[in-house]
Design a protein that fits this description.
This protein is mostly helical and 109 residues long. It is built from 5 helices and 2 strands. The longest helix has 14 residues.
Length: 109
């Protein structure tokens, strides 16, 4: 495992923006880059790099969409992301630490 496998040493504003989107629906299993980009206003390259970093930390897991589904809809396959249990806990702790009292997160999610 790399040095960042245990989690972040520093967290960028784009990372916090993406975490906010993921934490809004932490049980969702079909987040994909373009949708996250649209919701955050971040470029697709930025989203891709942040998602890669979150996956390295173990905060998200990913899998490729079924090729037949994408083909039937006339588009490239999507890489779907979902928060892991560890990621959900760590992201919530990070947001609480960085922004105490600012966000009220659903404790059951």
């Amino acid at each position: 495992m790399g040095s960042e496998a245990a989690g972040p040493r520093r967290v960028t504003v784009p990372t916090l923006q993406i975490l906010a989107v993921l934490l809004a629906d932490p049980l969702r299993t079909d987040w994909f880059g373009l949708e996250v980009s649209r919701q955050t206003g971040l470029g697709s390259g930025t989203v891709t790099q942040v998602m890669y970093r979150l996956e390295e930390w173990g905060w998200v897991a990913s899998q490729w969409e079924d090729r037949d589904v994408a083909t039937s809809q006339g588009r490239p396959r999507r890489r779907f992301y979902r928060m892991t249990g560890e990621g959900n806990q760590q992201a919530r702790a990070l947001v609480r630490k960085r922004f105490p009292g600012l966000l009220r997160l659903n404790p059951e999610a």
